[in-house]
Amino acid sequence: NRILCLATRPDKSLSPEHFTILEEKIGPLGPDDVLVRNTWLSIDPSVRLRLHAVTPNGYLPPFEVGEPLVGLALGVVVESRSSRFSPGDTVTHMYGYRDCAVVPAGGGGLGGAGSLTKIETDGFAPQWFLGPLGSSGLTAYVGLVEIIGLQPADVLWVSAAAGAVGSIAAQLAVLRGSTVIASAGNQDKVDYLRDGLGVHSAFDYHSGDVTTLVADAAPDGIDAYFDNVGGDHFDAALANLRTGGRIAMCGAISGYDVAAPGPGPSNTFQITAKSLSIRGFRAGSFAHLYDAMRFEVGTHLSDGSMVHRESVYEELEQAPTALVDLLNGRTTGKTLCRLA
Ligand code: NDP
Fold this sequence. Notes:
Number of helices: 9
Domain Enoyl reductase (ER): 12-337
GO molecular function: oxidoreductase activity, acting on the CH-CH group of donors, NAD or NADP as acceptor
Protein name: NADP-dependent oxidoreductase
Keywords: Oxidoreductase
CATH class of the largest domain: Alpha Beta
Bound molecules: NADPH dihydro-nicotinamide-adenine-dinucleotide phosphate
Distance between the termini: 13 Å
Pfam family, one: ADH_zinc_N
């Protein structure tokens, strides 16, 4: 069985050379173990955070050099010592970045969204349960509905809006009647945001000062910001939010693939002056909302009112390239690695 491991710790930008593939022999299953053949790997920015020697307090621990990576994956049960899973079941779990995985039916301590979970695909493509109908969809839904408390009258800005989480957040907000401003890193993505996702206004954050670009898109200010990026984007949100504005702190990708994130925002007094509410969240703590999210997003995907794109890489060898491409904005929609 092949497993992707960290070969050396990146001190600046990540490259595929920081990984290596090791072989392991799968032993007999223990009581309650389930053998899963992985078919799709979810490529997630959070893996990059865990490649630093130190991770933020309260977050998942760093990966050690020589240690296998873990990550969200979808696969098919091959053999089961658990009464809850049978061969042929489609499942999601946290033992990705390997061809096959021995997964404890109880979750194996990775917990939360990492628990082994049986998926009824209901006619949807199975890999969508890693993307719009899975963790990415839940993250978008929680950020908008629970954290921001989005209202139809709101003007909302979504950053990294052509990505897995951002594209669902932007579309859900449009479909719920809000005015949506979306940003991404190149003109093709900006066209996709406007013409594909139907947002009201979109810009390439490389095309000028982000604070000015948001102000141009929303001259009267914004009510809410869905932050996937942090850094200068967070600063721009503080400057453009109206009194009582809300921010959902979903992620801060601008600070992941660097030796150390840059200094913090320069305008935090805006939070005081405008009574802003800023709240972080981890979607895994809101697993009880999967059904509500799947109903809403699944309905929109089925009737064509929501679109979905994937950037698919083939085989475990390409997983490092997939992660590097995602961090550098070379993927659109959900980034996945397919295992034959
Ligand atoms: P995406 O598919 O959005 O991929 C990441 C995107 O970030 C890239 O495509 C790139 O697009 C953009 N990006 C990279 N660097 C920068 C930068 N310096 N400035 C602006 N944009 C940048 O990934 P996901 O949808 O999986 O994740 C999006 C965010 O959500 C991440 O911050 C992630 O950590 C967070 N997240 C949070 C969860 C939670 O529970 N809170 C759960 C899952 C994800 P572009 O071309 O536009 O630059």
